[in-house]
Amino acid sequence: MTEIRLTNTRTRTKERFVPLDPGAVRMYVCGPTVYDRAHLGNARPAIVFDVLYRLLRHVYGADAVTYVRNITDVDDKINARAAETGRSIAEIADETSAWYLDDMAALGTLTPTHTPRATQYVPEMVAMIQTLIARGHAYAASGHVLFRVRSFAEYGRLSGRSVDDMIAGARVEVAPYKEDPMDFVLWKPSGPDLPGWDSPWGRGRPGWHIECSAMAEALLGETFDIHGGGSDLQFPHHENEIAQSRCAHGTEAMARVWMHNEMLQVEGRKMSKSLGNFFTVRDLLDRGVPGEVIRFVFLQTHYRKPMDWTEGKAREAEATLRKWRALTEGVAAGEPSGAAVAALADDLNTPGAVAELHRLAGAGDAAGLLASAELLGLLSPEMGAWASATPDLSGLAGRLQAAREAAMASKDFAEVDRLKALLTEAGVEVRMSKAGVDLVPAAGFDAAKVEALL
Length: 454
Ligand SMILES: [Zn+2]
Prior knowledge:
The chain has 17 helices and 15 strands.
C-alpha cells in the first residue's frame, strides 16, 4: 500500500500517516460561515483537502473514507447581514450555502460524505456544554457559558504558544462575566430578534467553536484521523476545538493529524477590499475563467506555502489545459503514474504531481496523463465543457488564407489585418507560414466570439 506522509501541525513534523482504522479513514475540515459569496481564499482549503480526499480514496478505497465539511449557519455575521438587507436569517443562510456548494463544485471538488449544518446539531452542542460544566471545564454566568481555558493545561500546544503569550498577542474580549479574559464563549443569550434555542441557561445560541466539536463527534467519533483548515484557524478556533473535545471526552487527541493550508494573495498582495483586489470565486467564473483553470493554478503551489493568484498564471494554466485536453480527447484513462501518486503521498506535493503531468504529456502518454490528472481532479469530462465547446476553425483558416492570397496580389492587407484582429480578440492564436494559416485556441479563447465570425 502507498505510504502517505503528512505534515502534522501538532508535532511540527512530516509523519507517516497511519489511520486508526484503515477500513474507516475519517477527516474533518472547517467549512464556511454562510453570509456572503466565497472569496478566492476560501477556495484554497476546499481544493487542498479535496486532493487529500481523492488520495485517501485512491489508497484506502472510495468506501473507506469519510470526509466531513461543515457549514456554519448560525453566526453574528449572518444576523448582521439579515438586519442590513431586511431579509430573513434562514433565507440568507440557505442562499449562501447553495452558492458555496455550487462554486466549489465548479472548482471540481467532490461532495464531502457529510455537509452538516450547525443548526442541525444544537442538542449535541448543549449536551457537550453540559458535560464540560459537569467536569469543571466550563461555567455559566449571566446567560453565557464560558470555557475555562486555565483548566486545560495543554491549551496552546497546537500553535506552540503559552496562554500568557496568547493573551498578549490576541484580541481577547474582556467581559465582566468572565473569570479570565482568555475564557471563550460556548453559549450566549439571544434576544427575541435573534435565532435562539431553549437551553438550561435560557434561550440562546452556540458559540462558533463548539459547533465543530459537536459535529465532529457526532459524525466521526471522539478521536479521528485528520482535521484540516486554513492556517488562520489554528488559533483560536482549532485550539478551542481541541480544548472542548478533549475535555468533554477525556481523550488524548481530538484528531491525530492537524493540517493547515497557507493563505492566498493576489498579484503579490494580500487580498483586501481596501486594496481593490478582493474578488469571489463567482466573480472569476462570471468573467469566463473556467473552474478547472482556477483549480489548476491552485495546485501549482504547495498547500503549506503562501499562494499568489495572478492573471498570468491563469492564462498559462488555460493554455496548458487546452493542450492536455486535446491530447487526451477520446483516450481511455490508464493507471495513474507511480510518480504522480508518490508526489501526492509526500505531503500533498501537488507541484510535483503537476510536473509529472507535464512529463507524461511530453512523452505522449495520454492514457497515463488522463489517469494521473484525474487524481488531481483535472481533465474530467464534467469539468471540460469550457474546452470542448471549441468550434471547427478550418473554415476561418481557409478564409484568412484566401484573403492573404488576394492581398499578396493587390498589396492591400486591410482585410487580412481585420480578420487577424477579430481572431486575436476572440482568443485565437494566428500562425501564418509559407505552408498556410494555422488557427489555435489560446488563453482567453471565447467560443461565442468565434461562432459569431463563422
Ligand atoms: Zn472548525
